[in-house]
Amino acid sequence: MRLLKLVPDDTNIDFVRLRVWAFGLTLALSLAALALVAVNRLNLGVDFVGGLMIEEKFATTPDVDRVRTLVDSLGVGQATLQQFGDPNTVSIRLPTPESTDEGATNAVVQKVQRALSQEFPGARLSKQDAVSGKVSNELLWRGGLAVGLAILGIGLFAVLRFEWQFGVSTIVAIVHDLLMTLGFFALTQLEFDLNIVAAVLTIVSYSINDKIVIDDRIRENMRRYRKMEMRDIINLSVNETLPRTVMTSVTILLALTAMLILGGHVLRGFTAAMILGIIVGTYSSIYVSSSLLITLGLRAEPNERAASAMDNAERVGPRK
């Protein structure tokens, strides 16, 4: 039985040749993502901005403006509405009630639900969330801190495990992946909540795993082919690890696609972030992180002391 091979064993693609174009594309996409976040801003969920979120399921597609007018007339605060998942589902975001106890929150939910069910027969409450402003600020701070510490720790590990150039290139690639994710959510206005922070941390973990595998192969080939040009070593290393990279990415994308189609709107934001992260993470591992090592001045030739030690080890041979 022949094994499935998505990438032939004798693949020899000159990835480094496109590094200037890749750097230009990466810079353009990163600036575009920053602009989208600055202009459109993220559609932060109740987890981060506080308030009351009511998810209402209607029997038929409702008139959103009519729903907004009705909720605003109830005196529970200005409502922000958004259709998501399917046309019959509407997310209604309201300010946090003045009284933060559970009874006041339930009273607002019941008031909104009663009015909607009378105006739109068959409407039913699908989900509700309430977070105070103090808790939401703490969640936002801790979520950002978790992502920042993860990136910093990864860069420090790469510096200690390899040379400093590997750490810098890894951090640049991961920041690029993060910016692409934020830009995507600013563009689509999908809700950005704690589930998406979990997706971002998962993306960072996946990206670093792929990058460390490639970096380790680059370092091995630097020791094995000490007189080979650095661009040739990078091309060789990326091509050697390409079958693993492609197979891993395709396998994960198959599972995520099934989740996107069958998981419903609750998992849609998380799954969309993961799919985007796998794609841009694979791109940055191949075209950004690896090729950036040349720009940072990494050389294939070891220093004289290391070269002498390696030559002596080769002459003496392994100890018995």
In a few lines, what is going on in this structure?
Helices cover 65% and strands 9% of the residues.
Overall description:
The chain is of the alpha+beta class and 320 residues long. It contains 11 helices and 6 strands. A 4-stranded antiparallel β-sheet has the order 3-4-2-5. Strand 3 (80-83) and strand 4 form a beta hairpin.
Overall strand count: 6
* Number of separate helices: 11
> On the 0-100 scale, what is the average pLDDT?
77
Radius of gyration, in Å, reads: 26 Å
CA-to-CA gap between the ends?
41 Å
Give helix and strand order, one letter per element, not per position.
HEHEHEEHEHHEHHHHH
List the helices and strands and how they pair.
Blueprint: H1 19-39, E1 43-44, H2 46-49, E2 51-57, H3 64-72, E3 80-83, E4 89-94, H4 102-119, E5 124-131, H5 133-161, H6 164-188, E6 191-192, H7 194-224, H8 230-262, H9 268-289, H10 292-295, H11 304-316
Summarize this structure as a short list of keywords or feature phrases.
alpha+beta; 320 residues; two-stranded parallel sheet
